[in-house]
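tmp note - Carbonic anhydrase
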Amino acid sequence: MDEDENINIKDVEETNDTNKDERRGEKRIIDKAQLLKRTQSEIDNRIPRASTDLITPLPISFSEAGENLEGLLKKNKEWANAITAQVPGFFANHAKGQKPKIVWFGCSDSRVPAETIVQLGPGEIFVHRNIANQFNHTDLNSLSVLQYAVDHLKVEHIIVCGHTGCGGVLASLSNGQHGLVDHWLRNIKDVYYANKPKIDMLSEEDRVNELVKFNVVQQVYNISATNIVQNVWEHGGKLEVHGWVYDLGTGLIEDLQINLKNAKDLRDQIFKVQYEQT
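out:
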């Protein structure tokens, strides 16, 4: 073998070595990219997002928080720090004002927190809760909440949400005395009376849950009968009233398919507010 052949062979070997190094380098780059992608995916799956786990956390009992108010304050600090770490400026932006699209009329029952069950965070729902999610036309509290939500916050959706096994509804089906709350629940007895044949044919548990639904429907119509809501409809604004029921046993919400969007949807036109022609 002459000198030229030795040189050529050497060149080929060096070229092959270079190609191997380049391929190894490319493989390392690919491996690194895959590792980064896998690591990021693991991080994404491991770290709770501000829109879910941190803003609406998994259930924690009062006993787990130490059964004292200091424990709650500690949890609050942990929550605020976690949100700020993930979404810098979150609280500063929220302090500037609120622009919710929803006002929620629900029951005071501790098992039905509005934001948690629909997985929304602070600033997304304007909430009013009372015993058995009532909307009475003589209740200035409920009326004030509705008026502020509709006229000032410009919400587009009003949700009345009842829940299965409601204690207030159960009490309204009895003849016993329960105290001051009996006066508050008096209207539910009227709802029962109006739907008595459909309710009485059911078992006791089903009677309660059926009356829960009838009660929600009644409150939807009560809200829609106000001039607060009808003023928006009269001027062509977007405002819908919905009826839901939350199932305590499954955590799921049933849409009762009652969605009022204008005065034509009222139960009867006797509830329509008359407007002067201009």
